[in-house]
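Justification of resources, computational component.

The compute hours requested in this renewal are based largely on the per-chain cost of generating structure records like the one below. Each record pairs the submitted sequence with a full structure-token output. That output is archived, and it is also reused by downstream analysis tasks.
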Amino acid sequence: MKSFPLSAFLLFVLFACEQTTNNQAKTTTANTHSIDSSNYTILQFDKANTWLSKNIKPTSLTKSEIEEIEIILKQCLEKYNPDQKLRFDTISKKHPEYNLKIEYFVIDLSKYKRQYVPFINSAGQKEVWVNCFCYEFPDWRNEILEVNDGGNCFFNLTINLTTKTFSKFMVNGEA
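The structure output for this chain reads:
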């Protein structure tokens, strides 16, 4: 596959990384059994590792908070995917020889595993760093998965459960 201009992709990622939403999460009537626990794991924040932020404390998640995470995660992708579909259409029309596939652009959440790292931020609000990936790795339930590149098969964001918003949404780049 030929690549499209790297500078255009980097600009897109730069602007997408700090995107936030003030949309309040929609209430759901789904029961706690609607979320497949085989698709996520909850990892404890290690105080010795300050990669998330300084002055935060580990915490836990309830089943209703896990449901809320899923709602906000879906809202995030509802904002992300339409632009990616348009990007796919534009590049595909301009360069049909690339034989691009839509799944290289849009994110289908049903195909992703998730790692949740819950914490209380310095303002006393509950947040969760969410790490998503489309392959199952041997120790993904016990260790934070860190990868370079990989495209939209890997993305992460921070969800604030107190304010019902997301921030720091980042999709990995292509190699």
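The two ends are 12 Å apart (CA to CA). The first helix runs from residue 6 to 17.
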